[in-house]
Amino acid sequence: MNPARRMRIRRAIPTDIPALLALEKQAATAAHWSQEQYEAAFSSEGPARVVLVIEDSGPEDARVQGFIVGRAVREDWEIENIAVAGAARRRGLGTRLLEEFIDLARGRGAQSIFLEVRESNLAARRLYEKHAFVETGRRKRYYREPQEDAIVYRVEFA
Ligand SMILES: CC(C)(COP(=O)(O)OP(=O)(O)OC[C@H]1O[C@@H](n2cnc3c(N)ncnc32)[C@H](O)[C@@H]1OP(=O)(O)O)[C@@H](O)C(=O)NCCC(=O)NCCS
Questions:
Q1: What structural domains and CATH numbers belong to the chain?
Q2: Mutation probe of ligand 1 site: the residue of 6, 33, 53, 126 with most atoms within 8 A of C-beta
Q3: Best probe residue, ligand 1, of 84, 130, 133 (max atoms within 8 Å of C-beta)
Q4: Distant-in-sequence, close-in-space partners of 18: CB < 8 Å, separation ≥ 6
Q5: CB-based contacts of 111: which residues, under 8 Å, 6+ apart?
Q6: Is the entire prediction scored with pTM above 0.70?
Q7: pLDDT tens digits, 106-146
Q8: Pick from 138, 57, 72, 129: nearest CA to 105
């Protein structure tokens, strides 16, 4: 069976924050948030965010292997981060997270989804392109450490 099929996706809860931070540390190209920023993502104040995790399905071995976080700005949604554990990459987990996020956003009335990604991050760019995201812009020197342009991708559903 495809390994990604044995995993389950669920909404993240605040006790997942240490796992999210650990995953992010393994992923230099991911967006980096502080513990406080993740806590704010679960708070009822501020913009409403969707955080999904993918984990091994067994009750004993449940281990978060990836996550995606995004938010809605009216009908325009943004993917703010996605990361899969280093050892679990290229097995379809990122695809499952992205597809679940897109379904959820569309189910809630999203007309479009956009995101920014490092220009050199070909793994993520190919993943987005496979899901009909198209390049719509560039933000010069958007990232630091190392400095790099961001490519803006967008998918429209209307
Ligand atoms: C981007 C990321 C989430 C993809 O997760 P993943 O579980 O490995 O992705 P999948 O296995 O579902 O791959 C789906 C497709 O993406 C593309 N892809 C994924 N990794 C790739 C790589 N290293 N090189 C080229 N294409 C790649 C391929 O088209 C792949 O399909 P294929 O395996 O059939 O060829 C993962 O590489 C990651 O965590 N990277 C670090 C964090 C990061 O950069 N996040 C993006 C922030 S904008």
A1: 3-156 (3.40.630.30)
A2: 126
A3: 84
A4: none
A5: 75, 76, 156, 157, 158
A6: yes
A7: 999 999 999 999 999 999 999 999 999 999 999 999 999 89
A8: 72
